[in-house]
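> @MW can you paste both from yesterday?
MW: sure, first one:
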Amino acid sequence: MDKFKICGRVLIWLPAIFIAITIFSFSNQNGDESQGLSNKAAEVILTAGDNLGLVKFTDTNTKANMIEDLQVPIRKCAHMGEYAVLTMCIFIAFMFNGVAFRWSRILSLLLTIIWASSDEIHQLFIAGRAGRFLDVCIDTFGSLIFLGIVSLIHHHLEVKKEKNIFSELDL
């Protein structure tokens, strides 16, 4: 195997490593920093909704309550999204390195669950944060959403390939 292939097989893991480090850095924020980030995200979403005419504020108190109500869904969606991206990066790295489709899915899911679990353990040591099994489940659900989409696409391509093979035989 030449040096470029070896280099490619190693470099393809960099996006997964980058995402894992990013997740770790978000988890390293104390409770106040994390809540502040969620507040900003909720405020941006509500401001966009207001500009589009989807949300109307009667007063600043209403906006503050809406921001508070949006925090949990924003956090959980962010968890699912970041772990879906992590799974995608791991999956691509396995596929690029020649691991079979089925095993790439299984190994990607397992590595994501391990990272999510270790991340929640890490949060036990951060002020104002807590490690929760429910968050591991939410992270895993994000991973499963990505893998479900990949599986549906793969299945569709396999069916299409079979139809093409059979249509060529009929000629």
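MW: second:
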Amino acid sequence: MSIKKYKKVAVGGTFDNFHYGHRRLLEEAFNNGEEVVIGVTSNAFGGKKGNIEPCDKRMGNLNEFLSNKHNNFSISRLDDSYGSTIHEDDFDAIIVSEETEPTALEINQIRKDKEMSPLDIIVIRFVYADDGIPISSTRIRKGEIDAKGHLLDRH
């Protein structure tokens, strides 16, 4: 078994319409961390993105997907963009997409202001659909693509 670079890593998101981009983000977290803490946006916080699945369903989907492969994770509800990363000093790294990298920089600034050690930031590239546009839950909701990024016939 390979030695993980970090003891404890954070990853967060809405995880609505669980898709290949989410899988890539989580794979990176598990490849780098001995312990993975996954934050899932609450209904109130995540609902700002529009009509999304209930938080309990999104958390359940994640747990179902991961529990067959891993046992070194916890899933918690996020009521803001930062979660426990700004309260717990034992995080070593955060895994983010290109879209959420600015939030990781904000987290590090808050940690610095609190005299906590900064997190290493690991940015993963977008996963693209067949049309070269990033896969997103919004596009899946609109019926443009499926969770694998395949274009859907819109006739």
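> thanks! Residues 20-32 form the longest helix (13 residues).
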